[in-house]
What does this fold into?
Amino acid sequence: MKALVLAAGRSKRMKPVEDKNFLKFLGKPLLMWQVEMVKKAGFEEIVVVGGAHNLSRIKALFGEMVQVVEQNDLEEGMCGAVLAGREIIGDCAVMIFSSNDVVDESAFELIKEAFERGDADSYLLGKKVDKYFPGGYLEVDEDGLIKNIVEKPGEGKEPSDMVNLVVHLHKDSAKLFEYLAKVKSDADDKYEVALAEMMKDEVTMKAVSYDGFWQPIKYPWHVNPVFKYFFEKAEKGVAKSAKIAEKAIVRGDVIIGENVKIFDNAVVQGPCYIGDNSVIANNALVRESHIGSGCVIGFSSEVARSFLGNEVWTHSNYIGDSILGNNVSFGAGAVTGNLRLDEKNIVVDGVDSGSNKLGLICGDNVRVGVNTSLMPGVKIGSGSFIGAGIVVAQDVEPKSFVRGSWELKISENKTNISSDRENFRKKL
Amino acid sequence: MKALVLAAGRSKRMKPVEDKNFLKFLGKPLLMWQVEMVKKAGFEEIVVVGGAHNLSRIKALFGEMVQVVEQNDLEEGMCGAVLAGREIIGDCAVMIFSSNDVVDESAFELIKEAFERGDADSYLLGKKVDKYFPGGYLEVDEDGLIKNIVEKPGEGKEPSDMVNLVVHLHKDSAKLFEYLAKVKSDADDKYEVALAEMMKDEVTMKAVSYDGFWQPIKYPWHVNPVFKYFFEKAEKGVAKSAKIAEKAIVRGDVIIGENVKIFDNAVVQGPCYIGDNSVIANNALVRESHIGSGCVIGFSSEVARSFLGNEVWTHSNYIGDSILGNNVSFGAGAVTGNLRLDEKNIVVDGVDSGSNKLGLICGDNVRVGVNTSLMPGVKIGSGSFIGAGIVVAQDVEPKSFVRGSWELKISENKTNISSDRENFRKKL
Amino acid sequence: MKALVLAAGRSKRMKPVEDKNFLKFLGKPLLMWQVEMVKKAGFEEIVVVGGAHNLSRIKALFGEMVQVVEQNDLEEGMCGAVLAGREIIGDCAVMIFSSNDVVDESAFELIKEAFERGDADSYLLGKKVDKYFPGGYLEVDEDGLIKNIVEKPGEGKEPSDMVNLVVHLHKDSAKLFEYLAKVKSDADDKYEVALAEMMKDEVTMKAVSYDGFWQPIKYPWHVNPVFKYFFEKAEKGVAKSAKIAEKAIVRGDVIIGENVKIFDNAVVQGPCYIGDNSVIANNALVRESHIGSGCVIGFSSEVARSFLGNEVWTHSNYIGDSILGNNVSFGAGAVTGNLRLDEKNIVVDGVDSGSNKLGLICGDNVRVGVNTSLMPGVKIGSGSFIGAGIVVAQDVEPKSFVRGSWELKISENKTNISSDRENFRKKL
It folds into this structure.
């Protein structure tokens, strides 16, 4: 039995966050977290499907740990991704998992156990939901057999409480590949159409009910719940080489890396991850956040409910509900707005983020000038410079230089400010 | 003997602060503070005069505690207000008090004692002043009888050092009402004209000299001294349910309400009142201020010499010498300027506030965007939104949406910021 | 033997910092530091050369301690300055020192010792450099005699590793004056030309090698290294009358003056000098900086690597790598940018400051409005007002009033912010 991990997606909806598979949570890339869980659940032979854009990075990341194949035509979607594994999988049983979802390792264990104990041809993971989610629902008959996958049935019309997650185990991969190869559809759902054809031809499929963690990682704001999930699973603690000043305050669950320095009067309120070599300066506040390595959270900055990559520098800033890449730096007084004046949900590119709190979404290698305001949900592309003292209420393309445009009025100052000390003192 | 409390005024000069009678000091509306003092001084039957705009609120506030009558024509001023009580007062002795002034309860005691021990027909409270105040002065003869009330005599021309405060006790209210009913004057001073007529007709009036606290509450900047006065009188202490973090600092006299939370590194420097359920977050500073209930003074905010109503939220702001209503919220980095560059007194609507330090005057239900600057003495009407990153140097009408207007210049960024760590590190 | 201290320069390149000779380091004017060092090295009779612009200040500063002469024509440069001392010096030996350079007192000792033990006619201090500096190099023959002073030879073409510093001792001042009086040159180098003539005429000159501290003080950014040098030499400690709150943090080497107050949660990270009567308020951070007397470093301000004169007031500001005069005050949220977005060196008036970190250069009696941004290396002339909420990216002439220019868009706010508590609470 092999596992086929689909990781050829181009993370378009995650932009300007770069390829999500390599986004480091607690210092480890997402794809590594996922492959390790698959392995831990007992799948020893793992094949990862990549695309031209990330194939070499995947290979470099895993070395001998997995086999890597390329999906040549990324337009072929999930069907094409699975078919890319045809040769290497051959005809053994195959567990297919899309790296677009983060699930608990128990999901892999459940499907494996069901397969080992059961007699169906295929097993599909059904995530139990207690409110409507616009996905594909598993329609199951009295014998527990899946009759159909109903896409977005609408609230109240769900055929069951189980949403189809791409954790699928097929006994006969050769048959699957055969159906996939011959499926006729112009749409994006060829894989699902193939499954439907198989069901029609009496290939038996059973639902495996799953009640654990599930988070699709499709939009940038999905990063934070995934961080929290990995954080909960990880061992907490403070590295021996970390230096926490006597008057620094560290509360709640934290993971603090090697050579981290936390200065006097800084407050770290868990859950927080602080990567190696980062500095939390005097009077800074970090709460419920992921701070990558080599970051400096400067004097009087607050970072709240945010995900920061490596080498992010803040300085008297407020960074709230934001997702920032690597090598990003903020001038003093720059602020991420994270709540609309009308307190409505933040909508990004027409997609409701589901929350009224969302800050900045920022790529890599970005500089932001002093006292600049970044409006809720704004996206800044990698390699951009944002000038000082402006309000950015629109998305910024990668490698842009955004400046303010204003005129100063200069006249003679006719007031003579006395340097008289007593008068001056009254101001205190 | 009854007390007639005049509370029908429309607080126009207090705008955008809403009806001052209901402004809560230390959780208790101003009018309740005043009526309680009158009661404590021995006036058991109290009649409050309201107007259409506040009659039901007055009734709801006091229940059975006082009787409430309506002044129908608010244009009739104080004369009309007193006459509104004609029927309910009848012909017993009446102490008239205007809620426009805040005085110590000893003022009521003094006038009551003078009346009980003396033989004059009326007693008027004379506030001793040691410098010129532009009010009405009591002109008194060698027998202690008031001969005249001289309005704004001009500095150096005062007939005495006693300013007429509306704490007046008349033995024969029937006679007072009679004079008030027949007074002929187009001006705003019918009540004073009636008193003058009475004096002419040999109704004897005596001055009761008073040296205690007095603060007219006419303009928003009068709120702070009144707060300080009530604070001094109140019992200090910290509610048992309040949670003050180990590394929070509380100094001086404070009143801290139920369920208040003060986080680590916060500093509260008395005199300070902090209402129930409010939060003073990490590294915030509150000094010499009134914080209503349900407020959050967020990270790294300073609130100095200010009066905040309920549910005010700050976040890395400076709020200095300001008066804010209820449900007001500031984005990170928004600042109230409270001192002109030339350090001159702040003038509001042509009225000199008497101080070179005055910040924002803000109504209820207001939102202010991040990094916005509010100039000294600016008034923001209730229900308004103030956008991000702007400078507001003018008054804002209620229910306004104020936005900046600018253009950003966007070009290609030709600089390639290296992510080289060593280079980056040099910046620290 | 006398010492002639040249202090008639007009500090043009230091503008808007006023006459550098009177710039107070640790409470003592630069010129006093220098004269005291000369005196300590054994030069008992000191003559200071001033100009019309500073003669009375020099006299007032030193009283009987030195003799003061005036250089009438400042266009005559160093040659004119030395000649101004002709009468008062007479024909004794003279040590000439330019106050444009800060050197260790050992420099004066070295040259004096060399003169006392040696037999040359003149001694010139040669500062050993280990990398190219664009100054005048001493060309020395096998006998140790100076053959020439080579101005800016270019890197790799230096005749020695010794740069000519104006710490020169001449045995026969009468002869020096004679050569100076007759030198013919239109250029700025008459003094050097005279020395060259003397060498040609077999006046023997020897180099005295010096390896100690040297800092020309020509541009504003030279102030900080000079501060650090004086700080290192000075006695550290905290005045008895200073009050450091229990929860204030003071680390590293500091000099804290009389009546200084350091409030709770403030952090002072040495090396720091804090002058008499200054206040470091709650949650402020001062590091590696010189704070003059009567300053207030307000709540949540950071002052880093900066030189502040007297009576500078900050308030929730970031002041980094800046040089500020006296009586300067910043509104809350005003920020000195100190790093370009592209992280290149800051260039001021075409001169590379040699560092990618440089903040504001500010004269005396300046006010800066709230939330204003001052770009790296900007100079603000004395007596200027800078309005609120603007970005100043250009130099500002003395006595200017700089204001923003914008339009606000005001419309009706159609959103009704509910004051519903539960909804409100969700924002926390």
